[in-house]
From TrEMBL:
Protein name: Helix-turn-helix transcriptional regulator
Organism listed in the record: Flavobacterium azizsancarii
Coiled-coil residue windows: none
Ranges where the HTH cro/C1-type domain occurs: 14-67
Lineage: superkingdom: Bacteria
InterPro entries: Cro/C1-type_HTH, Lambda_DNA-bd_dom_sf
Short name of one Pfam family: HTH_3
Length: 133
């Protein structure tokens, strides 16, 4: 049976939530007082006892129900709605793209030019050192 036909694979749900929270297996293991290999085994398990699931949910900062009901479709929908709302209304009404006082691309180009200049100066310094020897 493939992964696509096992929608209630709790271990995979834990793995995806952990990844979405940008947490490594080692960090989750530390929070649970175990090791990375144990977390790997949990994430490969189709079922997990309720007590362990409650501990994992607490370590991940989510509810047990959030883990049990987790789906990729729900997360995509959540992030799409969050993005749509943050663009149209601003984040809590504080940020709105129309109030941005600078072009982010200009800042990237400015940073790139400064890095390029620093590299040129470094090359000149190294060439000067070589000529002195």
């Amino acid at each position: 049976m493939s992964a696509a036909t096992k929608p209630n694979h709790i271990g995979r749900k834990i793995s995806r939530i952990r990844e979405l929270k940008d947490m490594k297996q080692e960090a989750l293991a530390q929070a649970l007082g175990t090791n990375q290999q144990a977390i790997s085994a949990i994430e490969n398990s189709e079922t997990i006892d309720d007590g362990k699931l409650a501990d994992i949910a607490k370590a991940l900062g989510v509810s047990v129900e959030a883990i049990k009901n987790f789906t990729e479709e729900n997360m995509i929908s959540y992030f799409n709605n969050f993005y749509d709302n943050s663009i149209s209304n601003g984040v809590n009404g504080i940020f709105s793209p129309s109030h941005c006082s600078f072009n982010p691309l200009d800042k990237v180009i400015e940073l790139y030019e400064r890095m390029l200049q620093a590299e040129k100066e470094k090359v000149e310094y190294l060439e000067k050192l070589l000529k002195e020897k």
